[in-house]
Amino acid sequence: MYVLFEQGNMEKIPIRIACVLLVLITGIAACDKLMPGVPADDSILDGPVEGLSPEQSAQFIRGDFAFNDEIFTPETGLGPLFVATSCGTCHAGDGKGHPFTTLTRFGQKDSTGNQFLGHGGPQLQQRAIINYQPESLPEGATFSRFTPPANTGLGFLNAVSDADLLALADPDDADGDGISGRPNWIHVPAYIQPKPGSITRANKYIGRFGKKAAAHDLLHQTVLAYNQDIGICSSYEPYDTYHHQEIDPEISNQTVLDVVAYLAMLKAPIQRDPQHPEVQAGKKIFIDLGCGKCHTPELKTGTSPIAALSQKTFAPYSDLLMHDMGPDLDDGYTEGSAATAEWRTPPLWGLGLSKKAQGGQYFLLHDGRAQSIETAITAHGGEAAASRSAFIALDATSKARLLKFLESL
Amino acid sequence: MKNFLIATTIFLITSKAKAQIDPELLRNPQTKTDSVRMNMDAVYSRPFMQLGKLPVALGGYIEANYQYLNENGVSEGHQFQMRRLTFFVSSTISKRIKFLTEIEFEDGTKEINIEFASVDLEIVPLLNLRGGVVMNPIGAFNQNHDGPKWEFVDRPIAATQMLPATWSNVGFGIYGKKYNKNWVYGYELYLTNGFDDKIISNSENRTFLPATKMNRDRFEESFNGIPLFTGKVAIKNRKIGELGISYMGGVYNKFRDEGITLDKKRKLNVFAVDFNSTLPRLNTVITGEWAWVNVDMPDNYTEQFGRKQQGGFVDFVQPVVKRPMFGFEQAVLNAALRVEYVDWNKGTFKSTGGNIADDLFSLVPAISWRPTPQTVFRINYRYNWQHDLLGNPPSHLAAFQVGFSTYF
Fold first, then answer.
1. SS3 content of chain A, % helix, strand, coil (to 5)
2. Cβ–Cβ contacts within 10 Å for residue A130, how many?
3. Which of A10, A70, A100 is the best substitution to test chain B (most B C-beta atoms within 10 A)?
4. Can you give the pTM of this predicted structure?
5. Which of A89, A326, B31, B45 is deepest in the core (most CB within 10 A)?
6. What is the distance in angstroms between the Cα of B303 and the nearest Cα belonging to chain A?
7. What's CA A19's distance to the chain center, in Å?
């Protein structure tokens, strides 16, 4: 064995320097200040709900990887037609998307269904792999653009009972407040197993995900996203969007289910500064203006196979119902049994964090047209016309408080 | 952080243990001293050992390190990494014909690559022929990448994650040098196999030149039959330093298959500037490289993949103590800093006109100790700020790295 420092060559200065350096570096290494901190829970949208079992956590991690890190290439099944190469490309940090990842859907004007299924409908795949031509909008098709929504707290939304949603609906405006609200009744594909207590009407089920609430549950949404957005066929949806042929699955059922579980177990956004007097005052104004009649402040879950989601009260600021939003927001396109002017009330939770996912800027409403919260509100019409007028009539202080509240969400 | 101390101590001890080998067994043949060495000479300006009178010389280097990495507050803990083990064999076939090969094992045996294997024939100093597996002279790092030459544990990001260092291909070319008092001029021109369309279709989700390296067939078959051209001119002054300008260009897509035309020929161009200099008096060594990439893509191809990229690095190395230490006569202690930047997607979104980000900025302060010029112990701290495509708040990554690299 060697002695570190040979006799005779002992030179004190370098040794000292070496020692000082060693201590210094060790000290630095120990110092957490030089390492990035964990971002505060209320500053980010991703992350799991509290109270998962180890098995659920492991599935969450697998789903997280498939959702955010699995980038598809032609070798792994991408396309030939697609809009983006992974889920995470459009839902960065599980937040809202950017016009770059905006989808276009076309070809349906009423409940008689999509008239352009033979022409690439319902979704435009404006990108293609090398040597393939992407699609373009067929002549005569009405269309809508959909900017990706945030993906947080979806398990809570999924676990609200159908009965609770129907209790919020007022399709004929029986209470005469000008706000109706009704579910989008949709046909569900055979691979969906409706959860116990599901309510049907003429063999149709309630849709609750998507801008037009045209997806029944998270599996439905995920299978369609793989197929329509990325060009990935699964055993659930084996038809390729390019050849319209049934092809071998390009993803395992297990991965699809992991992603579904991941979406269900994402935490609900955490409000920042909820006790701040301005925020509290803003919330009161929100209720006074009737915003809460659609953006329902509180919902509760029924029983869920995920214990952490069972019988929980949460604050999505949505009723998951369809509302007529007036001619300005009517693109002449729809899905399921909804009218073209009808949109599902988007949850407002996480609103203040949207900019951090949208490249530093807001792109609000279904197509990202509103670049501030204020313009999003003033674009409301139809059932929300009275709320909008009341908002415009607010004095500057009250307006600022309302905005402060909305940004705290 | 105890492991940190232990790791450092082990490194120190093993370094002493190395000195145990009987140095009489292998001898270090004199490398040419007449010339001024440039980046283009890097493959041959390495320490080789010669066995007796055999015309074959052996060499190699090893790189290993410890690292503690933290991304956005999450760490995978303490890692020990065997980054590279590289062997060189060179032989002087005749006075003016020589052969050299470099074989590298990366990350254990995860990757085994022939980085270089070519025969050089000198006609006159201004005209040499080279053929085999060559390293394309784009920038300087690609040719001058040996671990023991650098004060940093990681290779420069722009050189390996934008430019594809180490980038070698089968091909041939010519090179030469001309001396004029304090000045040396050098040139290199090569035709080799080139890139493929993986560069714009890969799981990195960005235009990524190194993706072509996944193609194992590229040493026996060109993807599209069009050679990649790489050319470099460099100028060096003994007192000032070296400046190189290089270009690499070719077609990357399969425009024709089985005689059927699929697309037009799509080009890829890379320009690079490299320099190194030692400041008088201060003896600060400054080494840097900057490169620009542009790739011709179909107009409607996804903007996820950048049409233009740029990036580079500058290293500042300041010798702080230069004196015998622990019996090493030529020991040097350096303070160093690397500044690096890469923008994988230079451009704006069609939909908004806003900037496409997908960029990274990094600072790496370092301390390195060289007991001899051929061995380096280095302590690095790295901090990266990386933006996604949309330019959302950056992801933060910090790392402590302690490692060594030595020729053997």
1. 35, 10, 55
2. 18
3. A100
4. 0.89
5. A89
6. 8
7. 54
CATH number of A277-408: 1.10.760.10
* B325 inside 8 A of chain A by CB: yes
Q: How far apart are the first and last CA of chain B?
A: 30
Burial bucket for residue A201 (CB in 10 Å: 0-12, 13-18, 19+): exposed
Looking at CA atoms only, how far is residue A90 from chain B in angstroms? 10
The residue extents of the domains of chain B are 2-407
d(CA A103, CA A221) in angstroms, rounded, equals 14
Tell me if the domain spanning B2-407 has CATH number 2.40.160.10.
Answer: yes
As to burial, measured by CB atoms within 10 angstroms (0-12 exposed, 13-18 middle, 19+ buried), residue A385 is middle
Residue A293 identity: K
Question: Which of B5, B17, B396 faces A36 most closely, judged by CB atoms?
Answer: B396
| Contact between chains at B72 and A85 (C-beta distance less than 8 A) | no
With CA atoms as reference, the chain B residue closest to A73 would be B202
Which of B203, B326, B381 has its CB closest to that of A5? Answer: B326
Of A11, A134, A361, the CB nearest to B325: A11
Instruction: Note down pLDDT in tens along chain B; length 408 residues.
Output: 444 444 444 433 333 333 333 334 444 444 444 457 888 888 888 888 877 777 888 999 999 999 999 999 888 889 999 999 999 999 988 889 999 999 999 887 788 889 999 999 999 999 999 999 999 999 999 999 999 999 999 999 999 999 999 899 999 999 999 999 899 999 999 999 999 999 999 999 999 999 999 888 888 888 888 999 999 999 999 989 999 999 999 999 988 888 888 889 999 999 999 999 999 989 999 999 999 999 999 888 889 999 999 999 999 999 999 999 899 998 999 999 999 999 999 999 999 999 999 999 999 999 999 999 999 999 999 999 999 999 999 999 999 999 999 999
Residues in B closer than 8 angstroms to A29, CB to CB, are 1, 4, 68, 400
Q: What are the residue ranges of CATH 1.10.760.10 in chain A?
A: 277-408
ipTM: 0.87
